[in-house]
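AD domain-containing protein
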Amino acid sequence: MSSASYPLHVPVFLEYNAAAGASGGASGRTVGTLLPSPAPFLIFVSSSSQRPLLNNVRIINTSSASAASLKVTPLTPSEMKQHGVSASMASSVIHGFDPTTMPLPRLDRDKAEARLARNVARIAKMSANFNENVSDEAQSVFDALSRTMECAWEGDRILVRVSGVIIDPPYKPENAKLVDKDGDKRAVERMQLVLRRTRETLNLPL
């Protein structure tokens, strides 16, 4: 049974028990209001406060409820008075759950601008790391190396900045060499080892 079969947006008595599929498995008789919801569920909102953003929300599965275990009865004016449900409280219960009436969260401009700057920098780095003039194999080697060290493209060559090593196509261990011939030769040996392991991981020929 859909929510349209029940009185919506009006103060009602809801009588239910655990067999009605109420979240939490509780039983009772509560004053509140029903909101539109997809079958077979009912959204029941109740509140003991006149503050519009403080509500209790219960989701009921009507497919597991019998007519005897779930009963919805609109309140009469005298019952509203008897149970202390004023017109303003009823409005609070009905409209307080409406997301269109809720205030927007405060925007922290500094955090928003910092997040924007990080995203711009990330996109710029991704763009700089992509070389449309090399093969997929070359790009995959570059991407693997750049995960653990700072790399840059110089034409179709890969420059590893920290090591001072540059790698020529086809990016095999023997293609690694020092940018400065007087540099640390151990850096080349380490890079050759890294290249060998990288190509093995990527299932590329050595």
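thats it. The chain has two domains: 3-101, 128-201. Helices lie at 77-82, 87-96, 109-129, 136-146, 185-201. bye
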